[in-house]
């Protein structure tokens, strides 16, 4: 009876535990990360009798956790990837909406500005039309400012979000370390603390939503976690931490540092996965290049419009003044250079733009290496890591001006002015275009100062007998500034047709201070000066250089103009300063032509200049961001599907199935009742035995 009673009691105990485990599963059906548990039974050692071995009941050997390391790792990595893509997508969709919007983008303002120029060019003396140009220019500058401000606000949000995410990472790392310690102690008896293991796994999964981690299991049941390129975030019960703060080179761009004990290491570029990785990737791949591209466009618009206005005359007969502000103002030039916080010198560098047409959308890093004597500069373009040639290197003396070219000899469009010598190992972040859209402004407020007229004009003598027509002169080289006194010195240069030699001869004497330096034919004897050969009856292109010296100020104007028709011998023509050119719109038309002129991203290394117009340059930016946005949406769908599949695979093995647990509950209840019945039978038999001996 004792054996039967013992067997019944063992079954009663085992099934009671199985019922407890089943109930535990049911009550934790909604617990995140919970893995279904099973009570594992085995038979007790049998007892030998003459007839053989007789079983002695059952015993519990383990409370097993239904778990797969492979499936869990898949969920963890899929979570990190999905969170990365989602963070990237949420940011780039905002940027795409900003740039491509009909009310928020740059294109509508560009079109309105050039449309107003076209209207003004049709009636250059019309003051209201000129005033509209000023208004649209101000609107264009403000649109650049507004878009730049919105992008800057997004960067500030990213900074704050990076700080919040790092706090969550540190909190979860501390929690995981605590779980490691508790698990190591609980597992010392040889059994697995299932609920603690689930809680730790869920904490790691949550951590993966913030940053990608590598998990390495240890012999004592603890897990070590690594971020970046192998920086140990959690080792056993010890944790390091991530700190986010202003960058050394650019305090407006927060960087991630790995802090362990007293050591600190910058790991921003090493972070991948999770929300933190997605934010950093978006900032590096999209946000910074977009802000730089927008700044380059603003600088190009400001430069090209101001330069063209400087090649014309306003309604007062003065050389044109700038419509937009000076982008090489000292204060602005200094803002384009950021000294690293680790620098030891007090040098005040300034970055001046020399050619907006060849500017790239990249930042640059300049450092003074002390590995050479004397120390030399090393520069690198950050967008592609290309090394730059710095000249002079090193400078012979300070103040010094440095220029930058790439391996193909392409000028980078800017120069760096150093007021004093930097210290060895000093570093500087050069941002030629970063603030271009932020700082552009319209400064001209007098409509009559818009230089719509060309500085020179030609006309034929009314007494000419032939039907030859001389085109209006165009100055093909630019001056900044163009000297009014020199232009006025070209008061009237005469040209006379010599039928015997089919040439136009410059009349002598030339105006005071004026010299013809490079006509098509050599100098002629006095009184003729020089001449250019033509073919009567055909279209001829005249090209010559007029050098003017007024008070020691010399300017050489390369002049191009057409000549057509059939002149008669002695027919004369004149070329000189365009006095009272109120109705002249030639320079205004050149301003209108800037809309389609290739002035952005010009590459002259291929033998011909290649570039894009203002509208196409902005269109390329919008297209690039739009393409990246579409790709991000596709990536989001793909990674979301992968994460769902990985989660379903894990849940199919580890998650609680209520139907299955309900069946188990009934089964173990019946087992429990049956075991109780065994005990009841044993008791009855024992009572019968006792009654026999009474």
From TrEMBL:
Residues 7-34 form the Flagellar basal body rod protein N-terminal domain. The keyword Secreted applies. Pfam families: Flg_bb_rod (PF00460), Flg_bbr_C (PF06429), flgK_1st_1 (PF21158), FlgK_D1 (PF22638). InterPro entries: Flag_bb_rod_N (IPR001444), Flg_bb/hook_C_dom (IPR010930), FlgK (IPR002371), FlgK_D2-like (IPR049119), FlgK_helical (IPR053927). Keywords: Bacterial flagellum, Cell projection, Cilium, Flagellum, Secreted. Residues 654-691 form the Flagellar basal-body/hook protein C-terminal domain. It is found in: Bacterial flagellum; Secreted. Its main location: other. Residues 93-324 form the Flagellar hook-associated protein FlgK helical domain. Residues 342-432 form the Flagellar hook-associated protein 1 D2-like domain. Belongs to the flagella basal body rod proteins family. This is Flagellar hook-associated protein 1. It comes from Pseudomonas aestuarii. The gene is flgK.
């Amino acid at each position: 009876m004792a054996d039967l009673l013992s067997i019944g009691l063992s079954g009663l105990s085992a099934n009671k535990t199985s019922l407890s485990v089943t109930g535990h599963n049911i009550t934790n059906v909604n617990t995140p990360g919970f893995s279904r548990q099973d009570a594992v039974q085995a038979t007790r050692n049998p007892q030998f009798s003459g007839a053989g071995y007789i079983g002695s009941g059952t015993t519990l050997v383990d409370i097993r956790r239904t778990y797969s390391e492979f499936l869990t790792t898949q969920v963890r990595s899929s979570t990190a990837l999905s969170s990365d893509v989602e963070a990237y997508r949420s940011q780039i969709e905002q940027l795409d909406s900003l740039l491509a919007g009909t009310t928020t983008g740059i294109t509508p303002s560009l079109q309105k500005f050039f449309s107003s120029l076209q209207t003004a060019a049709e009636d250059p003396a019309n003051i209201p039309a000129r005033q509209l140009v000023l208004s649209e220019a101000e609107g264009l500058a403000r649109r650049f400012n507004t878009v730049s401000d919105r992008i800057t606000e997004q960067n500030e949000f990213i900074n704050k979000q990076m700080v919040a995410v790092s706090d969550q990472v540190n909190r979860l790392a501390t929690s995981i370390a605590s779980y490691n310690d508790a698990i190591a102690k609980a597992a010392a008896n040889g059994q697995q603390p299932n609920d603690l293991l689930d809680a730790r796994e869920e904490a790691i999964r949550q951590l993966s939503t913030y940053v990608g981690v590598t998990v390495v299991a240890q012999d004592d049941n603890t897990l070590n976690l690594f971020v970046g390129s192998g920086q140990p975030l959690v080792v056993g019960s010890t944790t390091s931490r991530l700190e986010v703060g202003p960058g050394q080179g650019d305090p407006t761009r927060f960087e991630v540092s790995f802090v362990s004990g007293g050591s600190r290491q910058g790991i921003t570029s090493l972070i991948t996965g999770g929300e933190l990785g997605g934010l950093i990737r978006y900032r590096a791949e999209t946000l910074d290049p977009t802000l730089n591209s927008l700044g380059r466009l603003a600088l190009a618009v400001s430069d090209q419009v101001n330069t063209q206005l400087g090649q014309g005359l306003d309604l007062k007969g003065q050389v044109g003044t700038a419509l937009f502000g000076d982008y090489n103002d000292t204060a602005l030039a200094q803002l384009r250079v950021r000294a690293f916080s680790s620098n030891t010198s007090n040098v005040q560098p300034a970055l001046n733009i020399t050619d907006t047409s060849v500017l790239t959308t990249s930042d640059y890093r300049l450092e003074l290496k002390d590995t050479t004597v004397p120390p030399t500069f090393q520069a690198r373009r950050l967008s592609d890591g290309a090394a730059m040639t710095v000249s002079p290197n090193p400078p012979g003396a300070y103040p010094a001006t440095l220029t930058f070219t790439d391996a193909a000899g392409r000028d980078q469009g800017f120069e760096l002015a150093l007021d004093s010598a930097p210290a060895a190992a000093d570093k500087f972040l050069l941002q030629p275009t970063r603030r271009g859209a932020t700082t552009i402004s319209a400064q001209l407020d007098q409509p009559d100062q818009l230089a719509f007229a060309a500085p020179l004009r030609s006309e034929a003598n009314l007494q000419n007998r032939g039907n030859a027509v001389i085109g209006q002169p165009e100055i093909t080289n630019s001056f900044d500034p163009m000297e009014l006194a020199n232009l006025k010195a070209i008061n009237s240069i005469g040209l006379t047709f010599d039928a015997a030699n089919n040439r136009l001869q410059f009349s002598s004497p030339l105006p005071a201070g004026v010299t013809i330096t490079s006509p098509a034919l050599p100098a002629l004897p006095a009184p003729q000066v020089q001449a250019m050969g033509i073919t009567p009856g055909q279209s001829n292109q005249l090209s010559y250089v007029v050098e003017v010296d007024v008070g020691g100020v010399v300017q050489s104007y390369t002049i191009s103009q057409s000549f057509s028709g059939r002149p008669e011998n002695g027919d004369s023509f004149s070329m000189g300063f365009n006095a009272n050119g109120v109705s002249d719109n030639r320079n205004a038309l050149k301003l209108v032509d800037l809309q389609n002129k290739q002035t952005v991203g010009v590459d002259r290394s291929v033998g011909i200049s290649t570039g894009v117009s203002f509208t196409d340059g902005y269109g390329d930016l919008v297209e690039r961001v739009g393409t990246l946005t579409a790709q991000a949406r596709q990536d989001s769908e793909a990674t979301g599907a992968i994460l769902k599949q990985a989660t379903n695979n894990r849940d199919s093995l580890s998650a609680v199935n209520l139907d299955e647990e309900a069946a188990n509950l009934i089964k173990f209840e019946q087992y429990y009742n049956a075991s109780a019945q065994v005990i009841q039978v044993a008791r009855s038999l024992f009572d019968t035995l006792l009654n026999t001996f009474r």
